[in-house]
Amino acid sequence: MKATRMCLKTLKEAPQEAVIASHILLLRSGMIKKNVAGIYTYMPLGLKVIKKIEDIIREEMENIGCEEILCSAIQPKELWVESGRWDKYGPELMRLKDRNDREFCLGPTHEEVFTTIVKESIRSYKELPISLFQIQTKYRDEMRPRFGLIRSREFIMKDAYSFDIDEVGLEKSYDNFFKAYNNIFKRLHLNFTPVLADSGNIGGSVSHQFMALSDIGESTIIYNANYSADQEKAEALVDIYNEDNELKEIEEVSTPNVKTIEELEGFLKTSKKRIIKSIVYKDFLNKRLILALVRGDRDINKIKLANALDVSEFDLDFATLEDLSGINSTFGFVGPISLNLLTVVDEEVTHMINAYAGSNKKDIHLKNVNFKRDFDGIVKDIRVVKAGDLDIIKGEKLKEEKGIEVGQVFKLGTKYSLPMNCVYVNEKGESVPMVMGCYGIGVSRTLQAIVEEYHDEYGIKFPADLAPYKAVIIPVKYDNEMKDLSLELYEELKSKGIDVILDDRNLSFGVKAHDWELIGIPYHIIVGRDAAIKKVEFKFRSTLEKIIIDSKDVINNIK
Questions:
Q1: 119 part of a folded domain
Q2: CB 219 within 8 A of CB 196
Q3: Is the peptide bond before 44 cis (omega within 30 degrees of 0)?
Q4: 464-479 burial, b for 16+ CB within 10 Å, e for fewer?
Q5: Whole-model pTM?
Q6: What's 89-135 look like in SS3?
Q7: Are residues 375 and 492 in the same domain?
């Protein structure tokens, strides 16, 4: 491709909303163009990289016998009602109506559609197992789209679904996809790790996320040599902390304007581990208030709390001052005693002896509060696990690291097949629900994860097999011997199947060289004053190393 024929527009500076390197570089290099918040156009250079990522995914899917189809992004409400997700999915689901007032959604995922396809296509156990995938644009109405393609409202995703006769078959399918995902992310040159994860709105019994390790990642990985999980899912051994053995009588303690755990710790001259943190949530689905209790040095894991209540995380929000007034409590002094609410108690709270807690009266806390004697509730693990906690396998310390979620796999079981009547007939003539798995890769997010890992102060440093073009020929001046040698090399590289650009633009050499460093083309062939003797400067974008070679050796250097 000649540069004068390309839709090529680089920027000296990125828009103000771009704050992380990969987002800045994707915009500045002209790979993506913002339409509105969270919605982008993939320009020619960016689309070429997307296609290379997709090709790798397709190869690995075909290697495990997974066939490709393409569904509509528009899904009828009836399918989501049948699965039970229409009212549960939350505000991220983009809903719309047609001219006949029929309701639809723009698919964030396609469990219902694939289940219906297989339900209408497969009858006998002899036709199973089967797995299908697609690569398609998905939609989620993110409240705060940010970081470019990392959290957007429209994104490209590969989603696949397996259908088996039983759990044994699902285990095999899950393992096949798990191995294929490892192959995919290795071929994409990402520094990644698979971790245990929460199933979220997709559902199912077991899930793993594939995390590209990165300081800008929105997910926190909790791990050590024995264990790894996303922080939303992570578990740890219960930390038992108490300074008393015998239960004491409750006392009121005056705490004027002392509302936060940090303020209480200083005012009472005690440890946060002796204070019960009490948070009231609204459960919008069931139209009720919930009291959640953790130790004072802990935070509440909203995902775990939602799972304990069998609701979506989007169904929960903090109670308002008006809500607290309605239950005769007050902000900063909420406590578990005499508060007639469904109460979820973290495991660690049950081991606290003679703890401090709110009294539900302004400027007063209670001392010597004890589980079971003074209050009760549903006991669950609802705390956020953090570095320093002990893993549940060998009791060794856990560490934290940030990651970008680029893929996730789920064991769905019969979550969709049972309510949607996706069944097969077994050897005995009985109708049995199919056992399903679900497997997703964020294609556009993976593009940005690659850029985040491979860049320097000058721009992107694409791995050679992922770059939009393998090489660029940059004549210092596009005339005379420089032009002749540049054209000769251009035709030769094309004839050998090498994807190459000839920068024939009437611009200064500095501007041209800067553009290709920014875009991240792996090999730069600089044609300068030695063109008359058939010598060129060969530059490696990954290291910025330059060597002088004969023009006849260019192809060998690229190979």
A1: yes
A2: no
A3: no
A4: eebbbbbbbbbbbbbe
A5: 0.89
A6: CCCCCEEEECCCCCEEEECCCCHHHHHHHHHHHCCEHHHCCEEEEEE
A7: no
Write out the two tokens for 542.
């990954």
Which residue type sits at 317? D
181 and 108 fall within a common domain:
yes
Residue 88 lies in a domain: yes
Residues 443/57, Cβ–Cβ less than 8 Å: yes
CB hemisphere CA count around 46 (13 angstroms): 28
Asked whether residue 478 falls in the same domain as residue 431, the answer is no
Tokens 């609410």, residue?
341
Total number of domains constituting the chain: 3
Cα 388 to Cα 308: distance, rounded to the nearest angstrom: 25
Q: Does 142 lie in the same domain as 109? A: yes
Residue 109 lies in a domain: yes
* Full pLDDT tens readout for the chain, 559 residues: 999 999 999 998 888 888 999 999 999 999 999 999 999 999 999 999 999 999 999 999 999 999 999 999 999 999 999 999 998 888 899 999 999 999 999 999 999 999 999 999 999 999 999 999 999 999 999 988 989 999 999 999 999 999 999 999 999 999 999 999 999 999 999 999 999 998 776 767 789 999 999 999 989 999 999 999 999 999 999 999 988 889 999 999 999 999 999 999 999 999 999 999 999 999 998 999 999 999 999 999 999 999 999 888 888 999 999 999 999 999 999 999 989 999 999 999 999 999 999 999 999 999 999 999 999 999 999 999 999 999 999 999 999 999 999 999 999 999 999 999 999 999 999 999 999 999 999 999 999 999 999 999 999 999 999 999 999 999 999 989 999 999 999 999 999 999 999 999 999 999 999 999 999 999 999 999 999 899 999 999 999 999 999 999 999 888 8
Bridge-based pairing state of the strands 500-502 and 471-475: parallel
Tell me how crowded residue 5 is: count the other CB atoms within 10 A of its CB. 10
